[in-house]
Amino acid sequence: MLRDREDIFYQRFQEFHEVARTGQADNDLITERKEAFTTYQALTPPWVLTSDGEAISGTYRRADMPASALVGLPVSTGTVEGRARVILDMTEADLEADDILVTAYRPELVTGVRTIKGLVTEVGGIMTHGAAIAREYGLPAVVGVQNATRLIQDNQRIRVTERTATSRSCRRAPTGEVGSWLT
């Protein structure tokens, strides 16, 4: 049998069928897949990957943006200020009404979206799930903010704002500056 009930996620359907049939699991294979999964989680995917496997990179225009602003793609209008909650695993999220969710990109973010007032993701575009959910719930949102989960501190006060018609920004407060808002 499986050593841990979560081990089922490291099995292919046919492998799990064999475990159910024989009562024997290949625990070495499960351990190997867990280690590979941990390695894959540390990778940063390219913004765009063509069907030929070519990685395309680029930058957002920074016209009229403060030098310290983190720039991304606007996907839902509005300006909001609040506490940044950097969440990498939505099952561990403890969100409150004043929170702005900062995440890499998780399709399951819809479960916490009813309690937040803004959204920042590292990956995404205008038609991605996070963008659609933000528009549906009327949340100011910016996606495609490179390294947002590394550059924004959990519990930090931030502002997500539309700076121009085509860009949004979210900026970290300078270290030690109490009560400053981000623009």
CATH superfamily of the largest domain: Phosphohistidine domain
Radius of gyration: 20 Å
How large is the count of helical segments? 4
* Structure classification: alpha/beta
Strand/helix succession? HHEEEEEEHEHEE
User: Based on DSSP secondary structure assignment, what is the total number of beta strands?
Assistant: 9
Largest sheet, order of strands side by side?
A: 3-7-6-5-4-8-9
Helical fraction equals 10-25%
Which regions are unreliable across 5 or more consecutive residues at pLDDT < 50?
Answer: 164-169, 173-183
What is the CATH C-level name of the largest domain?
A: Alpha Beta
The fold-level CATH name of the largest domain is Glucose Oxidase, domain 1
Q: Describe the largest sheet.
A: 7 strands, mixed, barrel
- Average of the residue pLDDT scores: 79
The count of domains is: 2
What form results from the Cα inertia axes?
elongated
State which percent range the strand residues make up: 15-25%
